[in-house]
Design a protein that fits this description.
Distance between the termini of chain A: 33 Å
Number of helices of chain B: 5
Number of strands of chain A: 1
Helix content of chain B: 40-55%
Number of domains of chain B: 2
Number of helices of chain A: 9
InterPro entries (chain B): Cyt_b/b6_C_sf, Cytb/b6-like_sf
Largest sheet of chain B: none
Transmembrane segments (chain B): 66-84, 105-125
CATH superfamily of chain A: Cytochrome Bc1 Complex, Chain C
Largest sheet of chain A: none
Radius of gyration of chain A: 19 Å
Strand content of chain B: under 5%
Keywords (chain B): Membrane, Transmembrane, Transmembrane helix
Distance between the termini of chain B: 61 Å
Strand content of chain A: under 5%
Number of domains of chain A: 1
CATH class of chain A: Mainly Alpha
Structural class of chain A: mainly alpha
Oligomer: heterodimer
Order of helices and strands of chain B: EHHHHH
Number of strands of chain B: 1
Structural class of chain B: mainly alpha
Protein name (chain B): Cytochrome b6
Shape of chain A: globular
GO molecular function (chain B): electron transfer activity; oxidoreductase activity
Chain lengths: 206, 138
């Protein structure tokens, strides 16, 4: 059943030239693979993580010291997030350098831009969760950067109502990181793939 | 089958499967070699010096360390790239290609932006010490 479903996601036949690796370099597909790996590893991390300021760090320590494969799982999640960001940037660069953003693909370009910005936001919200010194101060600096942008003060107040690393802000980062942003990422990825089919493949103007 | 076309199964699906498997295997192998860092428990009373943002935001931190108004450059670039399809001319060439002639300016701006972001990130990552002073990376 899964095999049939996956077959229906793709066209029955594709242009032979569309399979040329030197054009797409498979960057978008590999980035989506990272997203799936992030979802799988993140789902397992949820079984141990506790989104409370006093409990978050000890839960990471417990994961690393007492859970079989816990340290490896966290490393995999972190590494996949780095690769996801790098690959999505490289994919965007490839789209620009090949002119694939141009009409009639402008809607898919907008969806791609939203995916890139959401990927950065997803990485940022995940940075705070371990609640170690690196997490706290990197997030704090990110908030200072946000604050100097127009409307940054209002955004900061919405994201961090009680200070970085305090109960409400940690909970908000957690919910955004595990539910809202991944949900949006998967929805927009689906829309991205749908638009590729609608625009008759990955190669423009053919 | 029409001329120039191939069945998705197995040709297209084979490519997808290989890319997926190689990515997962490479990440799984690298994760065993590169452990995720974990410092001491967060403490607002102990401020590190220098304080650095997440690696993917370091270029903005480096940029605004020169002037806070440079944040408008970041916003302008972001908006500029978002509206790119409406700024550039429509394609004239028939086939897909790298660096299309009519988009040469856009390509150069995009590449220059990437190089600048990379350079700013490296400077912030390796050449900034206490009080955000410039230090040698060596």
């Amino acid at each position: 059943m899964i095999k049939d479903f996956l077959k229906h996601l793709f066209p029955r036949a594709v242009l032979q030239r569309n399979l040329t690796l030197s054009y797409t370099l498979c960057l978008g597909g590999v980035a989506f693979t990272c997203l799936m790996l992030l979802a799988a590893s993140g789902l397992l991390l949820l079984f141990y993580y506790q989104p409370a300021p006093a409990a978050a760090y000890p839960s990471i320590l417990l994961l690393e010291s007492s859970v079989w494969g816990g340290r490896y799982l966290r490393s995999l999640h972190r590494l996949a997030s780095h690769f996801f960001l790098v690959l999505i940037v490289l994919h965007t660069l490839r789209v620009i350098l090949t002119g694939a953003y141009q009409k009639p693909r402008e809607l898919n370009w907008l969806v791609g831009c939203a995916l890139l910005l959401l990927a950065v936001f997803e990485g940022y919200t995940g940075y705070l969760l371990p609640m170690d010194q690196l997490a706290l101060w990197a997030t704090q600096t990110g908030m200072e950067l946000l604050h100097i942008m127009p409307l940054g003060g209002a955004l900061r107040a919405a994201l961090v109502p009680d200070g970085v690393g305090e109960p409400a802000s940690l909970l908000r980062f957690y919910v955004l990181h595990i539910l809202m942003i991944p949900g949006a990422l998967f929805f927009l990825s689906g829309l991205h793939f749908y638009r590729i089919r609608k625009n008759k493949g990955v190669l423009p103007y053919l | 089958m029409k001329r120039g076309y191939q069945k998705s199964s197995p040709y297209f699906f084979r490519l997808i499967k290989i890319a997926l498997a190689l990515t997962v295997l490479a990440l799984m192998a690298l994760a065993a070699l590169v452990p995720a860092p974990l410092q001491e428990q967060a403490d607002l009373a102990r401020v590190p010096n220098p304080v650095k943002s997440a690696w993917f935001l370091l270029w903005i931190q480096e940029l605004v360390s020169y002037s806070k108004y440079l944040v408008y450059l970041v916003l302008a670039l972001t908006v500029g790239f978002i509206v790119l399809p409406w700024l550039s001319r429509s394609p004239q060439h028939q086939g897909a290609c790298w660096f299309p002639r009519e988009s040469r300016v856009v390509c150069c701006v995009a590449l220059a932006t990437c190089v600048a972001v990379l350079a700013l990130t490296l400077v912030a990552m390796c050449c900034r010490g206490a009080n955000w002073q410039f230090v040698s990376p060596f």
